[in-house]
């Protein structure tokens, strides 16, 4: 393709319009002969140096926000948005051939996207999926590296979805992706807001910045589906030009709401009440937070024109997602579940759900990620100490931090709480201890890792599958 074909005609300098482009690169290590090299915002300070390196490596054009006095430069207002547009054009703008549904929020994104996909498939549509635990193109399942991929990978996924015959693409849209322009230029048929609680403040610095990043999804959406139970919903809705709908598990004032909850060990049943009518949903995942996730998916699907009976059938068929309240077989009189809960609010909701169906102790094994928001560590400790019966504080993904230091920060919130606790820094040992000391009726919650089958340490990544650890611990003498 030529640079003129990849860029809007007014953006391509006349001298470069017909230049053949062989590849798109935003990393200097990926520049090859004939590439267009994009200097991303985080590298603007070293832009001149990178540009000269790119030209030396064979770049045919350099996209920049600052005048670098290069003959090959393309000067733009926002290199992140331009990069996304280049990637879309490179693949023939496949997103325009799909109905995009985006889900954003601190918690629930993965579950809601999988519920939505199930409902759409129940309705007879082939549906692609982009998210934390994997990407699906309609005929293939692919590994995910980020919740929302880099724009080049994202548009390549869209292209494969179109090739595989998908009509819809359901995707998790992270605050990082929105802030960094990875989804720039996309138009979503609907955006869904699940909730907003403390997370990622190491990146966004303030909750206001975090909220504003999430809000960008709805500026790009034809309609917004918002959780009325979350206090940030009003801030997100304010001034949006698109159509809006609300859902709630707390009030009947929402467009879509639930009542008559009936929790049981295998899940929770509830009435789904919508403008289209009323139906009884038998959800196979526990907790009121699961009802909220189901409402989010149902409201979005109903706004897409899917009928209520199909929506209900899709939710009834939903069997859960790996690492989201995933029950691990034990063959014993106690229960073990794995969940991705890694925020104070996420832990609170999961423990509430566990408590409702547990006759024995609620035992929580958890830690906090390294090189991430330090301020939530004592908050997570306080939640567990106030709600669980027993806590085992351990490592999550410590990354470059000292695991013991992370534990000490968690303990600031644990000490003085109602729960008894112990510290076992090695996560595998902590899980073994929990299983081998379980009592009849106990519910052991392994929180934080969810779908992950690895642990990120200072020295590298090691294999760590909590399911395998539980299975091995069950074979060992009590």
How would you portray this structure in words?
By secondary structure, the chain is α/β, with parallel strands linked by helices. Helices cover 34% and strands 22% of the residues. The chain is built from 16 helices and 23 strands. It has helices at residues 3-6, 47-56, 79-90, 109-122, 151-163, 175-179, 201-204, 207-219, 233-237, 288-303, 308-317, 344-355, 376-387, 403-414, 427-436, 466-475; strands at residues 23-25, 35-38, 61-64, 73-75, 99-104, 127-130, 135-136, 141-142, 168-172, 190-193, 223-227, 243-248, 256-264, 267-274, 277-283, 326-328, 335-339, 362-366, 390-393, 420-423, 443-447, 454-457, 460-463. The chain has a nine-stranded mixed beta sheet with strand order 6-9-5-10-11-12-13-14-15, with helices on both faces. Helix 10 packs antiparallel against helix 11 (308-317). The chain is globular. 50% of the residues are buried.
DSSP helical segment count: 16
Which word captures the global form?
A: globular
Number of strands: 23
User: Structural class from helices and strands?
Assistant: alpha/beta
Low-confidence stretches: none
Helix content estimate = 25-40%
Radius of gyration: 24 Å
Biggest sheet architecture: 9 strands, mixed
Strand order of the largest sheet: 6-9-5-10-11-12-13-14-15
Strand content: 15-25%
The end-to-end span amounts to 66 Å
Mean pLDDT: 94
Descriptive labels:
about 475 residues, 16 helices, nine-stranded mixed beta sheet, six-stranded mixed beta sheet, alpha/beta, globular, about 35% helix
Overview in brief:
The chain has 16 helices and 23 strands.
């Amino acid at each position: 393709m030529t640079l003129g074909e990849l860029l809007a005609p007014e953006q391509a300098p006349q001298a470069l319009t017909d230049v053949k482009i062989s590849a798109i690169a935003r990393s200097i290590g990926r520049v090859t002969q004939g590439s267009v090299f994009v200097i991303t915002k985080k590298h603007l300070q070293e832009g001149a140096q990178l540009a000269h390196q790119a030209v030396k490596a064979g770049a045919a054009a350099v996209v920049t926000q600052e005048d670098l006095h290069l003959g090959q430069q393309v000067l733009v207002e926002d290199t992140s948005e331009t990069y996304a547009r280049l990637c879309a054009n490179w693949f023939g703008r496949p997103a325009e051939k799909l109905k995009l549904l985006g889900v954003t929020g601190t918690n629930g994104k993965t579950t809601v996207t999988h519920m939505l996909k199930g409902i759409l498939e129940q309705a007879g549509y082939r549906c692609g999926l982009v998210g934390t635990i994997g990407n699906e193109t309609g005929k293939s399942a692919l590994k995910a590296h980020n919740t929302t991929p880099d724009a080049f990978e994202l548009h390549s996924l869209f292209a494969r979805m179109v090739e595989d015959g998908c009509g819809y693409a359901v995707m998790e849209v992270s605050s990082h992706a929105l802030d960094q322009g990875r989804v720039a230029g996309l138009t979503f048929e609907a955006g869904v807001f699940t909730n907003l609680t403390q997370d990622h403040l190491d990146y966004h610095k303030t909750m206001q910045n975090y909220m504003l990043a999430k809000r960008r999804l709805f500026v790009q959406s034809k309609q917004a589906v918002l959780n009325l139970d979350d206090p940030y919903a009003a801030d997100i809705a304010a001034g949006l030009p698109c159509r809006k709908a609300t859902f709630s598990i707390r009030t009947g004032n929402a467009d879509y709401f639930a009542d008559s909850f009936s929790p049981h060990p295998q899940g929770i049943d509830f009435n789904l009440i919508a403008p289209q009518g009323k139906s009884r949903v038998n959800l196979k995942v526990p907790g009121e937070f699961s009802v909220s996730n189901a409402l989010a998916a149902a409201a979005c699907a109903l706004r897409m024109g899917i009928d209520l009976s199909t929506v209900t059938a899709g939710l009834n068929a939903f069997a859960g997602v790996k690492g989201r309240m995933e029950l691990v077989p034990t063959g014993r009189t106690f229960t073990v579940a794995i969940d991705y809960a890694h925020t104070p609010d996420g832990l609170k909701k999961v423990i509430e759900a566990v408590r409702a169906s547990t006759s024995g102790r609620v035992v929580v094994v958890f830690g906090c990620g390294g090189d991430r928001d330090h301020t939530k560590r004592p908050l997570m400790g306080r939640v567990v100490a106030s709600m669980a019966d027993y806590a085992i504080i351990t490592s999550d993904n410590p990354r470059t931090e000292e695991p013991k230091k992370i534990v000490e920060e968690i303990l600031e919130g644990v000490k003085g709480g109602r729960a008894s606790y112990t510290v076992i820094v090695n996560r595998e040992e902590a899980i073994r201890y929990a299983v081998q000391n379980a009592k009849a009726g106990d519910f052991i919650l392994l929180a934080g890792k969810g779908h992950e089958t690895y642990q990120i340490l200072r020295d590298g990544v090691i294999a760590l599958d909590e399911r395998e650890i539980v299975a091995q611990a069950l074979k060992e003498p009590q």
